[in-house]
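Q: I have 112 residues here and want to know how they pack in 3D. Can you give me a structure?
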Amino acid sequence: MREIIFKAKTAYDNEWICGSLVVDEWKPQHLSTHFITKRNKKTSVSARTVCQFIGSYSIDNEMIYEWDKVLFNEEEFTIVFFDGKFILAKNGKPYIYNPKFELCKVIGNIHD
């Protein structure tokens, strides 16, 4: 069974944190409803920055997440979830449907 990992920026200092995603839909709208948990510690995160690990690693053995910016064949792309799978998008449009993610180099994230 595959472990589903997320990353997001913390609500208090805007730093990336990785772990399991918890969404508390019972809180009032003005309170944080998204949390990342790791080792039983729950941290409030910005909902708009939540990114899912795609299950693949880069050429540098770095975990690749949804919304990461990557270099592939010397071109810049963004990792997006489209039509049931993770693909490479360019200029907001689907571009490469079955990339070899292990040949990608992570250069950032759209939320950086």
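Q: Anything worth noting?
A: The CA atoms of residues 30 and 46 lie 12 Å apart. DSSP finds no helices and eleven strands in the chain.
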